[in-house]
Each structure stands twice: as C-alpha cells, then as structure tokens.
Design a protein that fits this description.
globular; TIM Barrel; 8-stranded parallel beta barrel; about 240 residues
C-alpha cells in the first residue's frame, strides 16, 4: 500500500500531520525552493515532537551539486535524529554521479537512510536509479523543481512513472510534485511506496500557507480507499 508523506514546517505542523494520519512527516521549508531546508534546530524540535510515533524525514535544501556541500549538509541533518534524509539531484550527469559516489561511504559508515530526489521538470536521469541502489540509498523519488502550478503529470506520463518505479525495484519509491487530490487516484495505480504532498493539505492549497489538519485527514482517508481499490483490482 502506498503511504502518505506530508511536508511540514514546524513542530506544531508535525503534530497536526501526525493527528491527521500522515505516515511520513517530512520537514521542509517551502518558501526556500522545492527542497528548502529548515533550520536544524526546527527539525530537531519536530523530530522530538513526533517522538518515534511515525517515520520522519527532512530535506537538505536546493543545494549546488558540490560533493563537499552535499555531504556536509547530510551529516548536519543526521545530527537532528531524523529517520530519512532527502537529497536533491539537480545537476548534470557528471555532477550527480560525483555526489552519489561521495555519499556512498557516508551512507555505509553512518548507516544513514538517504533518499535521492530527481526532478521531473529538469530532464531526470533515470540511469542514476540503479547506481543509487548500488550505492546503498534507501530510496529514490520524483518531484518538481519549479513550483509554477504544473504538477508531476505535466512532465511525465503514467507510463514513464511506471518505468521509473520498475527501475527502482528494491528501494523505497516516492512520487511528489505539486500533486492535487484529483491526481492521487491515478498515481496510486503505479504503486509508489509513498506519495508526497504539501500544497494539497494547506490552507487555500498554497504550499507556503499553514497546514490544515482536516485536509491531511481527508487525503489520508482518500489514499486508504484508493489503496483498497487497487488491491481489489489486483485480485479480480
């Protein structure tokens, strides 16, 4: 069954997401880009507020693809106690592979759960996926870098998403990118490990506005029902 990842900006929002039924509580600063990072102190407080009741994750920021910068950001985020660390891969093939190789020993030595985030609107390099698996990444997900109202499905059709998920077999997989409630019923058919949202559960569907617990709850119920429908179709 696909799980629900909800991005939050504070310990208070983390508790709202928890109460609303989110499966993964993701710390992110939406005012600072696609993967904007929150201050480490805020992430630490949010992780403490969740207190192990759900899985937590956090983004490291829209960073340049410099291996030293990326590794330092991951090490600092690991100190917050968050369960999963998300790293954006925004570069060209050479830059991305260089950063991937730099992260590999860090992941192994510190036993970190790291997710690589590929950008659907920046010609995502699906060829990276098997390399990420070999490097020990916990997961890989698709998102969108430009938050201009277009969502994931504006850049990749369902067939392309299915190919991506098939290539990522053996890893946790995520699909996100300005997804709206009406997108969920389609996207869940390809069975990602989780679906990530922010704007869909905010006041006015604005990703930089406050989180709305009732919208988290409604989406959690919708996702549950969609999962059941997919399971029933598989058994038919």
């Amino acid at each position: 069954m696909s799980k629900l990842l909800v991005s939050v900006t504070s310990a208070e929002e983390a508790l709202q997401a928890l109460a609303g039924g989110a499966d993964i509580i993701d710390m992110k600063n939406p005012s600072q880009g696609a993967l904007g990072a929150l201050p480490l102190s805020v992430v630490t407080k949010a992780v403490a507020a969740v207190d192990g009741r759900k899985v937590t994750s956090a983004t490291t920021g829209d960073l340049p693809m410099d291996p030293d910068v990326i590794c330092e950001a991951v090490m600092q985020m690991a100190e917050t106690g968050v369960d999963i660390i998300k790293v954006g891969f925004f570069g060209n093939e050479h830059e991305n592979i260089t950063c991937l190789n730099a992260l590999q020993p860090l992941i192994a030595e510190r036993k970190l759960a790291v997710v690589a985030v590929l950008m659907a609107d920046l010609a995502p390099q699906f060829a990276l996926v098997p390399l990420l698996r070999e490097a020990g990444f916990w997961g890989v997900m698709l998102d969108t870098a430009n938050k201009d109202g277009r969502n994931l499905l504006a850049y990749l059709d369902m067939g392309s998403l299915a190919v991506f998920l098939q290539m990522a077999e053996g890893m946790q997989t995520g699909l996100a990118g300005s997804l709206k409630i009406e997108n969920i019923e389609n996207i869940i058919k390809v069975k990602p490990s989780y679906i990530g949202v922010r704007g869909a559960v905010c006041v006015g569907f604005d990703r930089v506005a406050k989180l709305c617990k009732d919208r988290v709850s409604a989406l959690s119920v919708l996702l549950y029902n969609c999962n059941k429908s997919v399971e029933s179709a598989d058994l038919a």
